[in-house]
Design brief:
heterodimer; A: alpha/beta; TIM Barrel; 12 strands; B: 301 residues; alpha+beta; 6 strands; 47% helix
Chain lengths: 295, 301
């Protein structure tokens, strides 16, 4: 079955929040369960970032223990390296997936670690933007999908150095087509990539197969300058930069198969996050995605 | 290879400058096409230098794993930040280019760097072995397909690695091998005691090893302990659980037997080796059974 047929089986999760090991223990960080109690429309699911060496923290386990909707966001696999999808890692992934019962898997399709997966090797770099790299990435997505039984959606990563002859959206269009899968479009990451490669925020979006966008991320960032060079740090603060909103608002109207949107603000107090959630909800409603924003 | 070169440029500003200045020279010997070499220098060069703390973060993680040798190095160099030079050296670049282990590369760097204290080499060797057994796969995953090659670094110790079956060895009974969670190394006499003393001292500084090494004013003379390169001691290093490593002095005979078992051996061959080292046949069989029972030797299916 082709992906655009398979997608009909995927639930419409709506707006959710993200977490990763230890994020919920940051002072004054939002509590996903408390947010769901107070503002259920903004915490309809939890995207759990998982590094298998760390596992699930108490917040993720508490969410899973309530049988609430979740997605599995991997933080430790180089999908374009076949040796990285080894049996031990796949066993661990299947184990954590059994605990949180995700609707799907997703994660930045980049270099999560250099060398083998071991302490001290972690980082996150965007993929090399070439046709060969897109094919290698697509193969890894298929391997992970076959090994776990879950749909696997690549996310465009952040970064300051983008190398390769393809535009980042052309690259991911190829990945999605070759893996016959959907896409997690991170609007903040795309804004960063556009800026670093000399493009305008919306460049390339009209040629992108937006029907493959299943999930979107919105997150705040901070502009820094070093040696006269300005760049954006993807720090997940609540201050969402204008290019990110521009991309989100543009893509929402074209992403007819959109199932979920995450506001990545896991280390912030919930009251500081509410304006962002409200703007996301309003944008979804205006964009024809009322089903993702139940009243 | 492109991605690995990007990593090297991110960590080493000097290397990045060299690539921008003359990429053919700086990248000589690497399997990179003309287009790939051009692509590496297309971004604004300052994009490679947006994270000024990248090396410090990585160094901090390494100091945690090499507390004793790093402490001695910080006394000898008067500034632990001198170890930041690792990221500009051949061990680091070779590690990234060959998909190696950063800890093993740092251990190799400490063993070779002219840091002014000959004891650093021995303790770095010991701490590299500890890091290696900590990273070893669990017994259940020993038959995983081999991953990418190990870094091309000389190691004075011989940690066990996930073995490959060799059918030609099957004629002498079970196939046995040293567990990758165990290692045996030979060091100057006194190395284990010096390691325990210095590592314990560093542990008094809490979790932030880097800050402790920067601030600690304890003179190196505090640990002027017996350390005799002419005399040797054998250490058995065992990863007993995640993050828990035990070090014990081994007899020369046991060390020899375990070193022999770094390669896949038949039970008969191991027993013969034990006998050659002085055991009688019954004793040799019992030793091998004990080593299997304790998980030091693994039986390959």
């Amino acid at each position: 079955m082709q992906f655009l047929d398979r997608i009909a089986r995927l639930p419409k999760l709506g707006i959710g929040v993200s977490t990763e090991y230890g994020a919920g223990d940051t002072p004054n960080a939002l509590d996903p369960i408390a947010l769901r109690a107070e503002h259920p429309q903004f915490a309809r699911f939890l995207e759990v970032g998982i590094e298998t060496a760390k596992g699930l923290d108490r917040h993720a386990r508490a969410w899973a223990g309530r049988n609430l909707p979740a997605t599995y966001h991997f933080l430790d696999v180089n999908l374009d390296e076949p040796e990285d999808l080894d049996d031990a890692w796949l066993d661990a992934v299947r184990g954590f997936a059994a605990e949180i019962r995700p609707a799907w898997m997703c994660g930045d399709a980049g270099l999560w670690h250099f060398g083998k997966r071991e302490r001290g090797h972690m980082l996150l770099l965007p993929p090399v933007l070439t046709g060969d790299a897109a094919s290698a990435l697509a193969e890894g997505i298929c391997t992970l999908r076959d090994a776990t039984g879950f749909e696997v959606f690549p996310e465009n990563p952040p970064g300051q150095v983008f190398v390769g002859d393809l535009h980042v959206l052309d690259f991911f269009a190829r990945v999605c087509e070759r893996a016959d899968t959907g896409m997690l479009l991170d609007c903040a990451h795309l804004g960063i990539a556009q800026r670093m490669t000399g493009h305008e925020p919306l460049d390339g979006l009209d040629g992108f197969p937006c029907e493959r966008i299943v999930e979107m991320h919105v997150a705040g960032g901070t502009v820094h300058e070093r040696d006269g060079f300005a760049f954006v740090e993807d720090d997940h603060h609540t201050g969402v930069l204008p290019p990110t909103w521009m991309i989100f608002e543009h893509a929402v109207t074209r992403a007819r198969n959109l199932r979920a949107v995450v506001f990545e603000c896991e280390r912030n107090a919930s009251e500081r996050c509410l304006p962002g959630f409200e703007r996301i909800a309003a944008t979804l409603s205006r964009g024809g995605h009322e089903a993702l924003v139940p009243s | 290879m492109v991605q690995r070169t990007v990593v090297r440029m991110l960590y080493d500003a000097g290397f990045a400058r060299a690539v921008y200045a003359d990429r053919d020279t700086a990248l000589a010997g690497l399997e990179l096409t003309r287009a790939e070499r051009d692509a590496l220098v297309r971004p604004d060069p300052r994009a490679y230098a947006t994270d000024p703390y990248r090396r410090a973060r990585a160094l901090h993680g390494l100091l945690v794993e090499f507390p004793a040798s790093s402490w001695l190095a910080s006394r000898a160099t008067r500034d632990v930040r001198a170890l930041d030079g690792f990221f500009s050296g051949p061990q680091f670049h070779d590690c990234i280019a060959t998909r190696g282990s950063l800890a093993a590369a740092f251990g190799a760097y400490l063993q070779r760097a002219p840091l002014g204290d000959g004891r650093i080499r021995g303790l770095a060797q010991l701490e590299a072995a500890i890091a290696c057994v900590r990273r070893a796969p669990s017994q259940g995953s020993i038959h995983r397909p081999a991953a990418a090659p190990e870094p091309r670094q000389e190691r004075a110790f011989r940690p066990a690695r996930a073995p490959e079956l060799r059918p030609a060895h099957r004629s002498g009974g079970d196939l046995l091998v040293l567990s990758p969670r165990h290692a045996v190394i030979e060091l100057p006499s006194g190395a284990a005691a010096l390691y325990e003393a210095v590592a314990s001292h560093v542990r008094t500084g809490g979790d932030d090893v880097g800050a402790f090494l920067l601030q600690d004013s304890t003179p190196g003379s505090r640990f002027d302990m017996p350390f005799e390169p002419a005399a040797r001691e054998f250490l058995h290093i065992a990863s007993t659980s995640v993050g828990d490593v035990a070090i014990a002095v081994a007899t020369a005979e046991l060390a020899d037997l375990l070193q022999f078992a770094c390669e896949v051996r038949t039970r008969t061959a191991l027993a013969s080796r034990a006998c050659a080292l002085g055991a009688d046949p019954d004793e040799a069989g019992a030793v091998i059974e004990d080593l299997l029972h304790e998980g030091i030797l693994l039986r390959l299916e």
